[in-house]
Write a structure and sequence with these properties.
Helix content: over 70%
Largest sheet: none
Number of helices: 15
Distance between the termini: 34 Å
Number of strands: 0
Shape: globular
Oligomer: single chain
Order of helices and strands: HHHHHHHHHHHHHHH
Strand content: under 5%
Amino acid sequence: MNLAPFAYLIIIIAGLKMAHNIVVILLMAFFVFLIFLPLVKKLRSFGLSDFFTTIIVSFILFGVLFVIGGFLVNSAQSFTQNLPLYQQKYDALIPHAVTYLKQFGIELQSDNIASIFNPINLIQHAMGFVKSMGNIMSNGVLMLIIIMFLFLESSLMIEKIFYFLDSKEAKEHMLLFTQSINTYFAIKTLTSLLTGFLIYMLLSFFHLEYALLFGFLAFILNFIPSIGSFVAAIPAIAIALLQLSLLDTFFIVIGYLVINNGISNFLEPKILSKGVGISTFFVFLSMVLWGWILGPVGMFLAVPLTITLKMAASYTQKYRWISVLLSDKIA
């Protein structure tokens, strides 16, 4: 049995883990590049050169990253400072929960409830992810430079790839892949923005604290299919339990379900002509693996990169089995 491929894989994973700081920046740059690539193509269609297109998009990108990065870092810090207050509110709710459960014959001690469910821990993990994303965005000078060079040479890179492809069919598959990946990320960005906006409006209606932050969290985690919307809802619902009434929290849960299911199960399939769904098992597996290698941001980047891999494999005969393996259904 040839164990060399497994040895190479272990070495690669170890190298990625040791160099996770620079790897995260490179992967974030690639992800942002894919999101903004449709805008670059649109500007080029007006006759602008690669240089001027790159300058225009880079200025827009710098402003977006700076504003969002600063907002995320400040929000996470403010949230962390308020955690002791939320902990006090949670501790005060536990005796009421014990009394309520006794009415149904369920005998639990306060310590048992705290060990079974502690929303403060969930909130801390969510804020750790938000702060990591914010730090990368607000301090992403290197990431911005990498993205600028990707935009500047994107046309040349595609020409180089076409040069090495030895058949007309391979070139057609490559062209279809680039078009599909651009279309997917453009539509996913728009539907994620819609999701984040609707969540923000929902939480603002109930006057929930940090509604804008939770709206952004819904936007960014909507890129993760199946479980992303669920993860985004957890901190908002936890804060609603501590701040609002049970009835208001119930309506917020219903609102999350309606918004996320309406967009992911009805709107996106109508817009996307070709499904790119990934098996929930592989979504979870990729998040665990890349989260262990690259930290919290790696959990977010894992799924977009897996989607890219799946779409690339679907256009090749040799590696189509990878696309089928990762898919949530067999065409």
